[in-house]
Prior knowledge:
homotrimer, about 425 residues, alpha/beta, 8-stranded parallel beta sheet, 4-stranded mixed beta sheet
Amino acid sequence: MSLERRYQREFVRTFFTTPTAVEGEDDSAKMLRSAVQLRGMQAPDVWVPDNEDATAPNMRDEGVENIVDVISEHGADFPGEIHPRIVWHRDDPTTRYQGFQHMLENADPSNGAIEHIDGFVIPEVGDIDDWKKADEFLTIVESEYGLEEGSLSMSVIVESGEAELAMGDLREEIGKPANNLERLFLLVDGEVDYTKDMRAMTPTGELPAWPELRHNTSRGASAAGLIAVDGPYDDIRDVEGYHARMEDNRAKGMTGIWSLTPGQVVEANRSPLPPKIGSWIMEVDGQEIELEGSEDRQVLDTDAVSLQETDEGSYSLQIGDDERRLDEDELQEELTDRVSYIPSLDDIVDSMEEFEAAKESGKGAIAVTQATTVVIDDVEIDISKERMWDEATYQAAQTPITLFQDVYEHRPDQHEELEETYGIDIVERAMNVG
Amino acid sequence: MSLERRYQREFVRTFFTTPTAVEGEDDSAKMLRSAVQLRGMQAPDVWVPDNEDATAPNMRDEGVENIVDVISEHGADFPGEIHPRIVWHRDDPTTRYQGFQHMLENADPSNGAIEHIDGFVIPEVGDIDDWKKADEFLTIVESEYGLEEGSLSMSVIVESGEAELAMGDLREEIGKPANNLERLFLLVDGEVDYTKDMRAMTPTGELPAWPELRHNTSRGASAAGLIAVDGPYDDIRDVEGYHARMEDNRAKGMTGIWSLTPGQVVEANRSPLPPKIGSWIMEVDGQEIELEGSEDRQVLDTDAVSLQETDEGSYSLQIGDDERRLDEDELQEELTDRVSYIPSLDDIVDSMEEFEAAKESGKGAIAVTQATTVVIDDVEIDISKERMWDEATYQAAQTPITLFQDVYEHRPDQHEELEETYGIDIVERAMNVG
Amino acid sequence: MSLERRYQREFVRTFFTTPTAVEGEDDSAKMLRSAVQLRGMQAPDVWVPDNEDATAPNMRDEGVENIVDVISEHGADFPGEIHPRIVWHRDDPTTRYQGFQHMLENADPSNGAIEHIDGFVIPEVGDIDDWKKADEFLTIVESEYGLEEGSLSMSVIVESGEAELAMGDLREEIGKPANNLERLFLLVDGEVDYTKDMRAMTPTGELPAWPELRHNTSRGASAAGLIAVDGPYDDIRDVEGYHARMEDNRAKGMTGIWSLTPGQVVEANRSPLPPKIGSWIMEVDGQEIELEGSEDRQVLDTDAVSLQETDEGSYSLQIGDDERRLDEDELQEELTDRVSYIPSLDDIVDSMEEFEAAKESGKGAIAVTQATTVVIDDVEIDISKERMWDEATYQAAQTPITLFQDVYEHRPDQHEELEETYGIDIVERAMNVG
């Protein structure tokens, strides 16, 4: 038997934290109250009332009360899952005991919140033995209040070298009779504290990109049937940077990301979904430039590339400082190599349906062709790219569709926006393929 | 005692898969029959009749018969090793049992193929305990047919997060009395299924580069005395990209790569061998440009760099957008820093012989000098690069020579091409150094 | 209880090796005698009389005598720590026994050197069980000479795949009753031999960058309370390259680096300390260009960027081949995104003091603003960057200050140079903050 995901969601796009108690406001729970009422693309897949770093230490007892108040009142209507973050530290038993008490308070059925709480987020975990301490407290909480053992999920923030190493042991630790680690749900990177723990420094104080940590988190999630989520992206104004980070994460198998504002939630909810319209990109000096598409013509408009027909069938192509003379075939080949197609949701569904039909009729592979006319400096070149789809390609291509289906199934509040974006027809076909 | 490689080959350059049964052909074994007759640079170091993904599920029983037919008839003459891939899946006992049956059939001595089969390739492995299940079946096969225990080698395709993690445990698992994991031979990455297993996505559907996976595979091979092989490179037309990938792999210690066509086999057999002729490259804006060499002059011909002598001994050097005024010494230093020499097989043998002689006479280090005249826009500058060779440099430089010797020893069918390429003198010296 | 660093230094910037015996000199200990008398920025944090690779095999017995002579005479005055490297090999018991004998000789109290020796460096280690063999020899040495158990530290050179894997096991092995691995101090990468062990090849023979190895070393150090040090940088002339490597290392949490010459020691001692003067950099085509600062104006002088005011409030900004028309707000935003500030020691101390005061008064976060006027082609644009500092930012920013304090505390011989560089006021404030 393989390790199966034991929770409802297959994917989590967004992990949105909210301070639980803010000093100096009339209502210290104001931000919680505002967040719990988010709907649609502004509402995260996982909402995290954050009683740890986002809340001042002297406000955290009040924070627990606020969580209980707000969730008992509004939790039933919240469209995503709810996972409060409590305090914890691998090196400090006092903090761990405080976290235990906060969980007991949050989960007390007489407070009326626990039926809407899906689990807890444990920060600053260390070795796997430290993870087990948090798991044990959750087991006691469940036992104390008559909840089913393992019904509260546990997510951890990976923000130390030892927690990174612990992710390599999950598969053999989950399922041991003395723990309930099957309750694990999200592995979330916390790069600020990780940077401190690793004692890393950059000249500007910017966070390192930590590609190996993100790989190891994604791999740990994959091996143990969990979901990997990247940490906060501090520069809230920098939407382009946030998208670039998410694209890099997805190439590592890390679909989710932390969001600090409802604006970031919207971007992060949308980013992993396939585009409405397919587009062509061209690689120029290591950068990707998007072509301007209209019907079947794709215009490249950049000073970095110029193209001229010097004689009949003879071309001069300049890319950056590099100039080349090419005949028509060579030009076609060069451009075909440099351009790529980003398929739309529609395109992906088409290819999958086509492959499914082929399989039904006994074929193991189909050729998927993308053709267009590329226009550079008014010179037009027809190009055509072909890709073989076999069972493995089909299954790898399925990931964005499985994601789409997971979102559609669990987030009815986003149906309207999805249908407006893609059109009802495509949405229906996407829900039926695969 | 350290873990020693237990098999004959020290290096495997090429891992070439062939479908075992193709529907709709007169002879469903046609591709096998064609592949088994490859010779010289077209023949791989390891040939893999592929009864898994390359063959349609409903053709796989016929595939096993074809493997037996073709190998019993032609296997004795095949110049590389033969390792059929059978079906297997960490999550599916039915598939594992089917794989066992196929191995029994392949290995039955009355079928006459097993004496030419070196081992089996097991795809889709999971934890190390899953690897042990395949190992146990091989032990039973050996016992059943009176073969020496451990005589059939086992190679695995690493295409899941748990298999990646398992590679960290090999050293302590190999050699335990209850298994015969000493039979392990190749660790082969399978990036298509790995991408699916990690649920990774890229906009264009292109595979992620997975540098960490390849590092971990190479490290796992190094620590356990095995050989690391990279997965298939799908874009068969893109020879340049295939070579770039192989160069990147070699810098990670991964010498071998999957080949999908005899054309790719040729490229992958040749790529890790040192060049016949040394050459100079220059780094310009993060890219490497090869200089055009003739005798002792190396001409740089690119629009990205221009050089003028403005006054006697005073120069203007423009690289990309960056222009600098330099005197002769500064110019020499700048160019010396930017150019590098790619040594030929001849050069490497020379340096090794020189170091061996020095060591014999009691010296621990020698200086290896490479000098040339660089020509840019008709301006000529003499440059000279010196490198210290000590015992460690010597041993690191030995890797391409050890590879060359391994190829020459085990692939007599490639002697002619090697001697044509390098000349018989260099080949002989390369076989005697180190 | 978490794993605490058990040794005095929190950081080690420099690991400087010196041959112990050079043939053909009047005094074979000449280099040792010269190195032990280094002071100030030329003296390393850790000095390593190298009786392994830097010393010819036939000179190593003499090398041990030289170590004893030189350290007994000069060791008391050496400002850094002293850690001789002895011979060792995971695959060769003869070499290990020789290393044991050399340690016994070095540590014999009647030789008068051991009171100045802080520990030993063990090269070529393998599995954790191999590390334990060296640890056991050190325990015997301590027992034999009545030294406190665990008082001699042990540093290892990680130069094999199995040693890289062993770093993942340190946390659970340190503290087991049957070993004294708490004596571990430095994890030092040895990329030349690692490259050989991994059988990696590059066209020019240059070493691969091995980012994953360095990450794993840094993580291993972080998880076990040790210090990570990068291996030698061979191209001694290439000061710029050495600094780039150190900056890359620090972003991985690896603060220290090997030094081969006193010149490299100076660079490596200074490199991790914050600059005296803050500066602005701008990202252009993936490269960082430093602006020329004077008062509150920062001039960008590069042909790669040009800026013109085309009409009142309308601008044309060209970066590389990319030209854009922007209004004043867009221009300001674009430049704000592209420039970054590298804070000086003074700036970091200021921000930390400000945050500490805010925390005292009950605030959990402050905004730190950096403003300047950027000048491109005589056009002036005011920009202002703001960053939130909370507890986590504060703690991450503390790393360079902790480093500074560690250096100041343990290296009185560098006080004069530090005070000359930064001024006595800043040095005092830096020693009192945090």
